[in-house]
Structure prediction request, 294 residues.
Amino acid sequence: MNAKKFWVSILVLFLIACSDEGTQSIVAPTGTSELTATQTFTLPTQTLTITPTFTLTPLPPYPIKQVLFLYNFYGYHTPTDSFYQDFISTSSIVVLYTDGQMIIPGKPYLQKMLSADEINQFLIQLESLGFFSIESNQQHDPTDKLYDFGDQYERVFDGLWYCISVNGNNSRKLCVYEPFMRFLVPKMKALLKFLDEYQPDGMSPYYPDRVLLWVQAGRNPYDNNLPKNSIPWTEPSLSLETNSEKILYADGELAKELYSWYGDKGYVFTQDGKEYTVYIDVVLPHQELTNRYQ
Prediction:
C-alpha cells in the first residue's frame, strides 16, 4: 500500500481497561417521509451527526448514519470496548439505514441499497411475523410473556443479549436473553429464524471505511487459529511498534484495503525484526467512536 495515494487519518490509541457492560441505546431519528404499500411505515429523514470527541487529540469527524432497523447482539468484552460510545461494542447481524443501505456482516460483509418499496416490504414482513405485537415486559423472568418457562426458570448471569430495533413512527425494541432462547414463544423463535437467514437478492461485498486494529507484541499464545508463518508489515503510515499492546485507527481507503487484504481474522506480522499479532475490528457507519483516554 502507498500512503501517498490515500488520505489517511491514523491515530494511536492505547488500551487502558475493559469496559463495564451496558445497554445499546438507539435514538429514534426525527423527521418523516411516507412510503406507500398495504401497510405504510414512516421513515425517519436521514440526518448526519458528527462523532463526539472528548480529548485534545480527537478522532477525525465522521458522518454517523441513522438506523431504521437493527438486529444485533452484545454482552461480551473486547479490547476495543472503551473506544465505542457507552464503552460497549456490539455485533450487528442485520442493519438497515434510513438512506436504504442494508449491511449484513459476515464472511464476507454484504450490502445492498434497498428501494423505498423494498424497505416497506421488509417492515411489513416483520409485522406479519409478530414483531410489533409479541407481548413482553422485557423482564426476562417468569412474568415475561416472551418466554414459556413452565417450572424450569433459573436465574442466569453473563449471557448474550439479542435485540431487534425499529425506529420511526412505529418504533419498538425487543431483546431476548441468549440462555433462555429455548423457552421463547414460537412467534419469537420464528422471527429470529427469519432474521438469521435473511439475505435479499442482489447483495454485493461491503468494504468498511473505518477499522480498529488491536496490536499485541509477539504472537498471541492463546489463539490457536493464527497462521504459522508471519507476514511482513508493509504499510509505512502505521507503526505496529509496542512493548505490550495498543489500538490503531484507520479510515478511508486504507481501512478498505486492510479489510480487503486481511478481513477480520488474526494475523502475525513482522516489523523491524519483531512479531506482532493484529486483529481488525470493522466499525460500521452507525457506530460512534470516541478517544476518551488521550
